[in-house]
Amino acid sequence: MGILHRQNKPRLRCTMLYYQVLNFAMIVSSALMIWKGLIVITGSESPIVVVLSGSMEPAFHRGDLLFLTNFHDDPIRAGEIVVFKVEGRDIPIVHRVIKVHEKENGNIKFLTKGDNNEVDDRGLYKEGQNWLEKKDVVGRARGFLPYVGMVTIIMNDYPKFKYALLAVMGAYVLLKRES
User: Fold this and answer.
1) Judgement on whether residues 91 and 106 belong to the same structural domain of the protein
2) Can you give the residue ranges of the Peptidase S24/S26A/S26B/S26C domain (predicted)?
């Protein structure tokens, strides 16, 4: 009976490892499906963003997590907070619409500014661009959680912290497997 038990132990470990890998794959795919679902529901290519600077204080602070929507039939109005991308910059910007310019053909252009900034954003736009258009908008702020995004900022600002956190999580998974 003891010999049979010893022979099944490696098979049992392999089966447990297989289930852990499968469980991890299910968690990752579930997170991906939730993210893609949020994109469809909100109409925004990035339904959740983190405020990275203090340019929108006191409305939003560095590290606030913003929830966005981007429904194209909704007109953009002065006073709204939008997240936009500018050609030549990788990171979207969170600022308030201060002026809207509507043409007779229905084309809308607008100007933005950070609440905590002295001047409008024309200096941030690509060279020669004075107004943003709807195509530049990633989304509009619809809600936020204060400071929840600080974890993201800390992990980007301090890569050693990110690797230490990953190491701790990896060790936890390995130790959890053994018990």
Assistant:
1) yes
2) 40-126
pLDDT under 50: residue ranges of the chain: 1, 4, 179
Catalytic residue (choose from 44, 64, 121, 136)? 121
Q: Report residue 28 CA to chain centroid gap.
A: 16
Kindly state whether residues 79 and 119 are assigned to the same domain: yes
Active site residue 95: yes
Active-site residue among 5, 29, 44, 55? 55
Q: What is the pLDDT of residues 80-104, one digit of tens each?
A: 999 999 988 889 999 999 999 988 8
Is 61 considered catalytic here?
no
State whether 117 and 72 are in the same domain: yes
Active site residue 121: yes
Overall domain count for the chain: 3
* Whole-number Å distance between alpha carbons of 76 and 83: 12
User: Residue 80's domain spans which residues?
Assistant: 48-148
